[in-house]
Specification:
Elements (H helix, E strand, L loop, with lengths): L1 H9 L3 H44 L1 E2 L5 H7 L5 H14 L16 H7 L3 E2 L1
Parallel strand pairs: 1-2
Helix pairs in contact: 3-4
Length: 120
């Protein structure tokens, strides 16, 4: 009888088996979510690349200098870009594209050409 008792002691109990199964079931979504996170990170990396590329063509009208504006904005030469910077320094930052109409030399046609490239 004693030998049978020792064999039982070596076998995992049903409670232990159930507990182990519960733990494994709880951890399995983590492996799935980790894989999904890695894929998301890869996609996020692509998003960052596309975002950086788009930013390279955009101009922050409130922080960029006249040289960058004239190089990136179609229809804006160095003189107009300097006028934008001078206006910004005198009156403060622009809050929307139509504010540029207050700058001498910037009309509705020019604004319509550059509006999509502007960030604030």
């Amino acid at each position: 009888m004693q030998g049978m008792k020792n064999e039982r002691a070596c076998q995992p109990t049903k409670w232990f088996q159930r507990s182990l199964m519960v733990v494994l079931l709880m951890l399995s979504p983590l492996s799935v979510s980790t894989t999904a996170w890695a894929e998301t990170d890869h996609v996020f990396g692509q998003f960052v690349d596309m975002h950086s590329e788009r930013e390279a063509h955009q101009v922050n009208i409130n922080t960029d200098d006249a040289e960058r504006m004239s190089a990136k904005l179609k229809g804006i030469g160095l003189v107009k870009a300097q006028a934008i910077v001078a206006y910004r320094e005198e009156f403060g930052p622009f809050s929307e594209p139509s504010d540029l109409l207050k700058v001498k030399g910037i009309g509705k046609k020019t604004l319509s050409i550059i509006a999509e490239q502007l960030i604030f």
